[in-house]
Automatic annotation (TrEMBL):
It is an enzyme of class 3 (hydrolase). CDD domains: ExoVII_LU_OBF (cd04489). Residues 38-130 form the OB-fold nucleic acid binding domain. GO terms for molecular function: exodeoxyribonuclease VII activity; nucleic acid binding. This is Exodeoxyribonuclease 7 large subunit. Residues 154-471 form the Exonuclease VII large subunit C-terminal domain. It comes from Kineobactrum sediminis.
Length: 478
């Protein structure tokens, strides 16, 4: 019988047993009403099904305690009030959309399903969404991120880069259809139309806005590094709206991208009273998109007045310089003599120097030639050719003497060797064997000197002058 069968019969049997009855039932009837035995896992599974089928989604409010966020990305914590507490689990696909991280002691409100963790038989809540209790969740998330980034020093002025003195190419990251880009272009057209504007279009609100703003900042920096589009600064901007409308500029990914940007970043989000995380980490902030455009562009009318003043100063300096040059020229003309006289003197001086040079060269050549002859004579006197010939004659004579000495040595050694061979042959046992004697040995090689050392039947070897014999002792005579 399947699970559903015993579940139905089991519940029916339990209900019958719990109903009061006026008369006792027979043993067979009681045995038929006893439900089947459940394992612990089956009991927990049935309890979980009952809880999840009875409760839909519920909202629960309480205080966070025992918060844990393991490497899996899931969140586990307890939710408690003054009377009780309950375990909660929020899995990663759900918590990655939450804009803040719960902390112990934080009051939160959560939407959840009632369930039971079968492995430990624990009653728990499966959280689908959570927010701050009381104050708005967005404002709380804003304050939490602001506090964390401030502790990291990302708002410090020492970290921020100064804006370039003159912006020639400006990258604008905003919506292509919003009022912000219209205001920025209007101000730039009025103040400094020579600035080139490169629009990087992004959505400025919605779930995907923060990621696309981050990608646009990184893309602009990559283009600048690779030389595709050389930019002087970036403007991240949008028009006004509610905190929720501006939230993309309060996301941590946008703040990190602004901090990591090699290009100076100006942030202008919302109206003057609106302050975003992007404004705080940016190198400069514009109260509005128009104010940011004014911050990044010089007023062309001021530049024209400045250029006129510079032109007047330059003209005055040129006139003064020409007057001084004319006076100096007149003075030099009075002091200047005809160059013909100087040229004649220099030509005569040049001829004299040429003659001295020729004499010095001839003297130096004579000295070098005499030194060369002296060195050649000394070299010839010390030439190794004579010594080499003398050494060669000595070597030939020594070689002949060596050969004669070797011949005499070999002859004396041969004579002595023949004499020693005769002496050795005279005492050799082989000579005795030639006269008809034999050497008797045991199979182990021991020489038999005494007939008593062998017995009849022993095998002996007899070595003759030519060859050997194998003998068997038939009789001994001691």
């Amino acid at each position: 019988m399947g699970d559903s069968g015993w579940q139905r019969e089991g519940k029916h049997a339990i209900i019958n047993l719990l109903q009061p009855s006026g008369k006792p039932e027979s043993v067979s009837q009681q045995q038929s009403l006893v439900p089947p035995t459940l394992s612990v896992g089956q009991l927990n599974r049935e309890a979980r099904r009952l809880l999840e089928s009875h409760f839909g989604f519920v909202w629960v409010e309480g205080e966070v305690s025992n918060f844990a966020a393991p490497s899996s990305g899931h969140w586990y914590f307890s939710l408690k009030d003054g009377a009780a507490q309950v375990r909660c689990a929020m899995f990663r696909p759900r918590n990655q959309h939450i804009r803040f991280t719960p902390e112990n002691g934080m009051a939160i409100r959560l939407r959840c399903r009632v369930s039971l963790y079968e492995g430990r038989g624990e009653f728990q809540l499966i959280v689908e969404y959570l927010e701050h209790a009381g104050a708005g969740a967005l404002q709380a998330a804003f304050e939490q991120l602001k506090h964390r980034l401030q502790l990291e020093g990302l708002f410090d002025a020492e970290r921020k880069s100064p804006l370039p003195v003159q912006v020639k190419r400006l990258g604008v990251i905003t919506s292509p259809t919003g009022a912000a880009i219209h205001d920025v272009l209007t101000v730039l057209r009025r103040r400094c139309p020579s600035i080139e504007v490169f629009l990087l279009p992004v959505p400025v609100q919605g779930d995907s806005a923060a990621g696309e703003i981050r990608d646009a900042i990184e893309r602009a920096n990559r283009w600048h590094r690779e030389g595709k589009v050389k930019l002087d600064a970036l403007l991240v901007t949008r028009g006004g709206g509610s905190l929720e409308d501006l939230w993309a500029f309060n996301e941590e990914v946008v703040a990190r991208a602004i901090v990591a940007s090699e290009l100076p970043v100006v942030s202008a989000v919302g109206h003057e009273v609106d302050i975003s995380i992007a404004d705080m980490v940016a190198d400069s902030r514009g109260a509005t998109p128009s104010a940011a455009a004014e911050l990044l562009s010089p007023d062309q009318r001021e530049w024209l007045l400045r250029l006129q003043r510079i032109e007047q100063d330059l003209q005055r300096q040129v006139r003064n310089h020409l007057l001084r040059a004319n006076r100096e020229l007149a003075h030099l003309q009075q002091r200047l003599k005809h160059p013909g006289h100087l040229l004649r003197e220099q030509a005569q001086r040049l001829d004299e120097l040429e003659q001295r040079l020729h004499r010095a060269q001839r003297n130096q050549l004579r000295q070098h030639r005499a030194g060369l002859e002296l060195l050649a004579n000394r070299l010839a006197a010390r030439s190794p050719v004579v010594s080499i010939h003398r050494r060669q004659r000595d070597c030939s004579e020594l070689e002949q003497r060596l050969q004669r000495a070797m011949a005499r040595k070999v002859e004396r050694a041969s004579t002595r060797l023949a004499h020693l061979a005769q002496l050795l042959d005279s005492v050799s046992p082989l000579a005795t064997l030639q006269r008809g004697y034999a050497i008797i040995t045991t199979p182990e090689g021991r020489v038999v000197k005494d007939a008593s050392s062998v017995a009849p039947g022993d095998t002996l070897n007899a070595r003759l002058a030519q060859g050997s014999l194998s003998l068997t002792v038939r009789k001994t005579d001691t």
